C-alpha cells in the first residue's frame, strides 16, 4: 500500500495534517479510527489499519448499529497511521477543508487475511472501541462510480441495536475550541439481552463449601501455578483440563469495570479490548476470574499466532479460556474446593458471550484426557486436585503433563547474523543454576520472523556486556565473539533434549515470553534436594565446611519405561553412597551422563569440566603424552554433584589416583553372545573362580547390570599395569583354549555367537569397569550388584537387581557381600609360574 495519492492531494506547508508517520508502529495491534469530518459535506471517515497504512472510507451518515441498515462507504486514498491522532481544522481551499474530530478509536481484528478479504470484496471484522464494538461487514458493490463503493453494516450480536452514530455524538468535538479541550468518550454498554444477574451468582457462590466474605473489593490475585510432572495422577479426585498454549490473565471486575492482569501483575486491559468487552457482557458487577488468553484453538502451533497478533504482525481472533473463579460479589472462593469453583464457573458461562470459553474437564481418566489433548494438537493437560483450594504460587495441587519438550530459558546474549540474515544470528540461552546463577544451555537460531529478528536486535543491541552473569563450561569459539546481555528476556524453546556437554539439541524458538521475568524461571525450578558434604582430610587435602548439592529438574523422567525421575535417582545414590563410595573414592572415574534420560543418547565423560565444584580432579598423562584433569570423587557430596550433572553410571579405574600406574584389582567381564543361556554364564563364572583359585587367587563376583557377570580379583600390594594386563590376557586365552566352543578371548562380535567373551581388556591403564552398586543406563534401572558366591545360583540374570531391590537388599543384609575384600593380601608375584604349569597340563 502506498501514500502517494495522499501526498499528491495535500500541500503540507498549508495543512496541519501529518505528512507521514513519525515512527514505525512496532509491537502494536492494528488500530481503527472514525473521525467526524465537517468538510463541504459532513461525513464520517472510517479507517482501518492494514499493514502500515490506514485503509479509509467516507461514510456520509456514519455507522449504524442496526444490522438491517447498510450505509454507503466510498473508498478514498490510504492515510498514514499518524492520521489516527489528527484533530483540528484543515484550511479552506485545501483538500478536505473543514474541521476534523475523533468520534471513536480502538483496535480491530479479523479471522482471515484482511488484504485477501478486501481483494475479494467482503471484509468481516470486529471493532473494539469505546463506542463501536462487535462484528461488522464491509461489502463492495458493483455500481459504477468515481470511487469504489462499499456497504458498511453491523453484524447481529450483543452490540446490535437501533442506535446511530449521531446518537453518540455527546462529547465529540464539533469546533476548533472543543478540539483543543479534548474529546470525552462515552462508553457503549452491550444490549440487555445478555444481562446476567450478578446477585444470583453471588448467592450461589455463598453456598459453596469454604466460601467466606471477601476482605476487600476485587483485586489482582497472584495465580496458582502447576508443577511439571512426568505421569498423569491417578484417581477420581483429580480433574484434568487441556493445557492451553497462551498467556495467563487474571480478570478483575470492580463495579462493572474490567481490568486484565498478567501473571506478574502487569496490566493488559488496553492490549485486548475484545476480552474486556466480552467480560463486561457477563453482568458481573464484582468478580475475579482466572484464565488463559489464546489464539485459534489454543494449540502449540497457535501460540506463534497469538504472539503475532499481539505484536501487530497478524490480526487473528483472540479468546479468553476461563478455568477458575476466585471471587463473585462479596464472596471469596479461594478456600472452596476446585470442583465446586469449576461448577459455579460453568453456570456463569452456560451461554458464554463471544470471545469467552469455558475450559471443560474430565474427572479421573487422566490418561484418556491426555490422549484427547494430544489428538487435538494441544501440548498436554493440567491435572487439578478436585478438593483443593486456590493457592497462589506453585504447588502440588495443580500438575502439568506435557508431551512435547519445551522449556523456558533466559537470553544471555546473541551472535551476529551471517549471510543474508538480518538483525542477529542466534540467541544465547541459559537455565537457572544453583551454583552460578545461570548456566549456558545453548543457542537457538530458528523459529524467528523477520519482524521479530529486527525487534530483538534493537532491544538487545544496546545492552551488551561481559558474560559475568552466566557460567559457560563449553569450549565454543563462536562464543568468544558473542554479544552478552543482562539475563532479563525469557523465551520458550522447543528442543529434542540435551546433547553432548548438556546443550540443547535442535532447538527452535516457540515464543518470547513477554508475560514472564527471569525470576519466574528460578521460582519454577522444582524444589531442591540437598546432601551435606562431609569432607575428610586426605593426603594433605584440607577439610571444608559442608555445603549442599542442589538438585535441579527433579521431576525429569530418567527411565521412561519405569517412570523413575531424577529425584529418585538422586535419592538412590544418596542412600547407597556408604556402599558405593569405597568402590570409587580416590580413583580416577568415568561417568555415563544422560541429560535426556536413559532412553536417549548418553555420553561417557572422564575429564573434569568447569562447573563441577565439589568433584576433584587429578592431572594424569594421556597416551599421547599430554596431561588432562581426570574426575576423582572423594566423598558423598562429590558423588551427588555428578548425579546432579545427570551421571547415571560410575566406572572407576583399577588403580588409585595417587598411584595410577599400579593396579589394585583385576576384572574379568563375562559377556555372553547371542543365544547363550544364563546358566552357562553362571557356569563360566564358577569356572573362572576355580581356575583363579588354582593359581592362588581369591575372587569375587557381581552382576554387571546388563547381560553378564564380573569376576573381580583384589591385588594387595598393587602391581604394575603391564604385568596385570599380560596376566589377564593370558588367563582369558587359557579359558578360550580349554573350551573354544564355549569361550572366546577376542572382542570381535563375529566370533561370539553362542559363546561367552572373556573380556580382559578392562585391565589396562586408563581402562574402567562399572562399580558395584552403580546404576546402568538401561531399561528398568538395573544395578551392578556384588554377590556372595553361594548366591549366584539363585540369580536370574545380570540385571536381576534394580534400584528398589538393591536398596532393600542392602538394608536387609547390612554388610557388604564381599567379606574380606579390602583386607585380602595377594598379588601376581608367583602366579605366572602356576599359569604356565596349568597351560602345560
UniProtKB/TrEMBL annotation:
Start-end of Basic residues biased regions: 182-197
Record EC number: 6.5.1.1
GO process annotations (BP): DNA recombination; DNA repair
Domain ATP-dependent DNA ligase family profile: 311-457
Keywords, comma-separated and alphabetical: ATP-binding, DNA damage, DNA recombination, DNA repair, DNA-binding, DNA-directed DNA polymerase, Exonuclease, Hydrolase, Ligase, Manganese, Metal-binding, Multifunctional enzyme, Nuclease, Nucleotide-binding, Nucleotidyltransferase, Transferase
GO molecular function, one term: metal ion binding
Cofactor: Mn(2+)
Enzyme class: ligase
UniProt-listed SUPFAM superfamilies: DNA ligase/mRNA capping enzyme, catalytic domain, Nucleic acid-binding proteins
Stretch list, region Disordered: 1-26, 169-202, 515-549
Highest taxon above the source species: Bacteria
Biased composition (Basic and acidic residues): 515-535
Reaction it catalyzes: ATP + (deoxyribonucleotide)n-3'-hydroxyl + 5'-phospho-(deoxyribonucleotide)m = (deoxyribonucleotide)n+m + AMP + diphosphate
Pfam families: DNA_ligase_A_C, DNA_ligase_A_M, LigD_N, LigD_Prim-Pol
NCBIfam families: LigD_PE_dom, ligD_pol, NHEJ_ligase_lig, NHEJ_ligase_prk, PRK05972.1
Name assigned to this protein: DNA ligase (ATP)
Upper lineage: Bacteria, Pseudomonadati, Pseudomonadota, Gammaproteobacteria, Lysobacterales
